[in-house]
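Tutorial handout. Part one gives the primary structure; part two gives the three-dimensional structure as tokens.
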Amino acid sequence: MPSHAPRYSIADFSMIPGVPCPCGTARRAFADVREFPGTLHVTSISDDARRHYHKRHTETYYVLECDAEAMMELDDDRISLKPGVAIVIPPEVRHRAIGRMKVLIVCVPEFDPEDEWFD
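Part two.
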């Protein structure tokens, strides 16, 4: 252990409880880190992910693992996915993941559940 107050932050996602979200189950970190203007999520996408959008958040999805048929619906487009693909989703873009997958999401600004909208 450091003998001084660290100037860094560490998140052990195995210790962060999952919470339900429109996509499946999310584990969210760094909401309390003043120097980080967003949050970092590891999200397990379920088969019944709901199409939604955000008015303030920009989300960047990085696909960690996914089924061969996995896709992302972005407005009226469907994009095939594979591990290693990243997508920046600006505010107002309707989106949902299709198929089972695990993604790393960087959300800026800090995630707020009040900024999840459905048509």
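Part three, for discussion. Residues 19-113 form a domain with the Jelly Rolls fold (CATH 2.60.120.10). The chain has one domain: 19-113.
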